[in-house]
Amino acid sequence: MIEHTDFTDDDMHAHGPSKSQRKRDKHALHLLAERLAHLPRRELERLNLSEATWNALDETHRIKDIRALGRHWKRIANLLEREDMAAVHALMDENDARERAAAAHHHLIERWRERLISDDHTALSEFIDEHPRVERQPLRALIRAAQRDHACGRTEAPRKLYRFLREALEPAADQS
Question: CATH fold of 100-175, please?
Answer without folding.
Answer: Diphtheria Toxin Repressor; domain 2 (1.10.60)
